[in-house]
Write a structure and sequence with these properties.
About 70% of the residues lie in helices and about 0% in strands. It has about 110 residues and is mostly helical.
Length: about 110
């Protein structure tokens, strides 16, 4: 006879996720913030090639690399620390940190 523990029969609660609309809104906001100053640089007469190279690096870093680093960190913590961090929550936190970092940089240089 197999004997089951009472802890395995308890219903599991669904994970708490950040609303999808908030994640998408932060992604759009991070993209707009990252691209914000480049039109002004072009109007000021800076070289188009250098502006586009700088924009490619900065926008991809803040919109892709930072959120992916948070997702990767969450996956590592889930694997090694046995936590339950949801991917969407980690992505939203990464986008939020990107927005805060961009606004900090903008405030520093304004």
């Amino acid at each position: 006879m197999s004997q089951q523990s009472t802890s395995t029969n308890q219903p599991t609660t669904p994970p708490s996720l950040v609303p999808l609309g908030l994640t998408i809104s932060l992604a759009i906001f991070a993209l707009i913030l990252a691209c914000a100053g480049y039109g002004f640089r072009l109007l000021a007469g800076h070289d188009v090639g250098s502006v586009l190279r700088h924009a490619l690096v900065v926008v991809s870093f803040f919109v892709i690399v930072v959120p992916c680093a948070f997702v990767g960190g969450a996956k590592l913590m889930n694997t090694f620390k046995h936590t339950n961090i949801q991917t969407r929550n980690a992505l939203t936190l990464g986008l939020l940190i990107s927005c805060v970092a961009i606004l900090t940089i903008m405030g520093r240089y304004s």
